[in-house]
Design goal:
Distance between the termini: 33 Å
Number of domains: 1
Structural class: mainly alpha
Radius of gyration: 29 Å
Strand content: under 5%
Number of helices: 14
Oligomer: single chain
Number of strands: 0
CATH topology: ABC transporter transmembrane region fold
Shape: elongated
Order of helices and strands: HHHHHHHHHHHHHH
Largest sheet: none
CATH class: Mainly Alpha
C-alpha cells in the first residue's frame, strides 16, 4: 500500500513539476490577455498610445524648423523671401500653433489611454483575484501542507501579486505602443527628408538597443530572484505570527528574529550586487544613447561638408534644414522609445507575480469538494 501511495504521490509531483515548467515557458501577457475586458477598451487605448508615440517625431520636426529659422540671420531670411520682413514671425507663429495642436491631441490621447488601460487593469485584477480565491478554496488539504502554499505565501499572492500583474499587461502595452510607433514614424520622416542621416542612425541604433535591452533584462530578473529568496522569510514570518502563542510560551522571540535576519541577509547581499550590475547596465545604456546622438550630429556635419553646390541657384544639394528635421525626428522618436525602458522593473516583478498566480490556478486538485457537490446536485 505504501508503495502504491508513494507512486501516486510521485506521479502528482511530476505532473506539478511539468506544469510549472510549461507555465514558465508561456509569457504572462498571453495568459492575461483573455482577462482584458471589455475588448474595445484595449483597442481604443492601444490606438491612443500609438497617436501619443507618433506625436513625438512630429514635435521633433516642428522643433527643427523653429531652430533653423531662429538660427538664420534676419536679413538673409528677408532676402530669400522677396523682402517680406514679417516672414520670420509668421513662420514661427505657424509652427508654434502646430505645437499647440500636437499638445492638444496628446492631452486627449494620454487621457484616453490612461482611462482605458486603467479600466482594463482594474478588471484584470478583480477577475484574477476572484479566480485565484475560488481555486484556493477548491484545493485538497494536502495542497496546504506544502511550505510553498503556506497561509503567509497565499495571502501575499492574493494581496500583493495580483496588484502588480498589470506590469506585463495593460501598463506595459501603452509605453510599448508609443515606442514602436514613435520609432517607425521617426525613421520614416528621417528617410523622407535626408536618407543619408537616417541610414547612419539606422546603422548605429543597435548600439543603443543593445544597451537598453541589457538594462531591461537585468531589471526583469530582479523580480524572480527576489521572489524565491523572500519565500522562506515570508514563510517563517507567517508561521511565527499565526502561532504567536506557541512562540511566546517558549520565550524564543530573539531566536526567531535572528533566524529572520539570517534569511534576509542573502536578499540584502543579492540586492546590493544587483544594484551594482544594474547601475553598470543603465550607465552603458545612457552612454550608448549619447554616443549615437554624437555620431548622428557628426554625420550631419559630414553630409553638409560633402554636399555639392548647385551652379544655377548657388545652394547646397542637401538642405541643412532637412538634416535637422531628420535628426530631431529620429531623436524624439528614440526618446519615446526610451520610455518603455522605465517599465523594466515593473515588468520583471509582474512576470514573477504572474508565474506564481498561474502556478496555483493551473494546479489540479486531487479532491475537489465543490465540484463533487455540484455533480451530485446535478444527478
Amino acid at each position: 500500500m505504501k508503495t502504491k501511495i508513494d507512486a501516486i504521490d510521485k506521479k502528482v509531483e511530476d505532473e506539478n513539476k511539468k506544469l510549472e515548467e510549461e507555465n514558465a515557458k508561456v509569457s504572462g501577457f498571453s495568459k492575461l490577455y483573455p482577462y482584458n475586458t471589455p475588448k474595445y477598451h484595449f483597442f481604443i487605448a492601444t490606438f491612443a498610445a500609438a497617436i501619443n508615440g507618433s506625436s513625438q517625431p512630429l514635435l521633433g520636426v516642428a522643433f527643427a524648423k523653429v531652430l533653423t529659422l531662429l538660427s538664420t540671420p534676419k536679413d538673409l531670411l528677408v532676402l530669400m523671401n522677396d523682402g517680406n520682413e514679417d516672414y520670420l514671425q509668421e513662420e514661427v507663429t505657424k509652427i508654434c500653433l502646430w505645437m499647440v495642436i500636437i499638445a492638444a491631441v496628446c492631452s486627449v490621447g494620454y487621457f484616453t489611454a490612461k482611462f482605458s488601460f486603467g479600466t482594463l487593469g482594474n478588471n484584470v485584477t478583480l477577475k484574477i483575484r476572484q479566480i485565484l480565491y475560488a481555486h484556493i478554496l477548491e484545493m485538497n488539504i494536502g495542497f496546504f501542507d506544502e511550505r510553498d502554499n503556506g497561509p503567509s505565501v497565499l495571502t501575499s499572492i492574493m494581496a500583493a501579486d495580483t496588484a502588480v500583474i498589470n506590469g506585463i499587461g495593460t501598463e506595459s502595452i501603452g509605453p510599448t505602443s508609443e515606442s514602436i510607433f514613435g520609432m517607425i514614424i521617426g525613421i520614416g520622416i528621417g528617410f523622407y527628408f535626408c536618407w543619408q542621416e537616417a541610414l547612419v542612425c539606422f546603422l548605429v541604433s543597435p548600439i543603443m538597443v543593445i544597451g537598453t535591452t541589457i538594462d531591461m533584462k537585468m531589471m526583469e530578473g530582479e523580480g524572480a530572484d527576489n521572489s524565491e529568496l523572500e519565500k522562506e522569510a515570508n514563510l517563517l514570518c507567517g508561521d511565527a505570527i499565526i502561532n504567536y502563542k506557541t512562540v511566546q510560551s517558549f520565550g524564543h522571540e530573539d531566536m526567531l528574529v535572528k533566524k529572520y535576519e539570517e534569511l534576509l541577509a542573502p536578499i540584502h547581499k543579492k540586492a546590493m550586487w544587483r544594484g551594482v550590475t544594474s547601475g553598470l547596465a543603465f550607465g552603458y545604456s545612457q552612454f550608448s544613447q549619447y554616443v549615437v546622438f554624437a555620431v548622428m550630429f557628426w554625420a550631419g556635419g559630414a553630409i553638409i561638408k560633402n554636399s555639392e553646390i548647385d551652379e544655377e541657384t548657388g545652394e547646397l544639394s542637401i538642405n541643412p534644414e532637412d538634416i535637422f528635421i531628420a535628426l530631431f525626428a529620429i531623436m524624439f522618436g528614440a526618446n519615446a522609445a526610451g520610455t518603455a525602458a522605465s517599465f523594466g522593473p515593473d515588468a520583471g516583478k509582474a512576470e514573477a507575480a504572474a508565474q506564481k498566480i498561474f502556478r496555483i490556478i493551473e494546479t489540479k486538485s486531487t479532491i475537489n469538494a465543490i465540484k463533487m457537490d455540484e455533480d451530485v446536485s446535478k444527478k
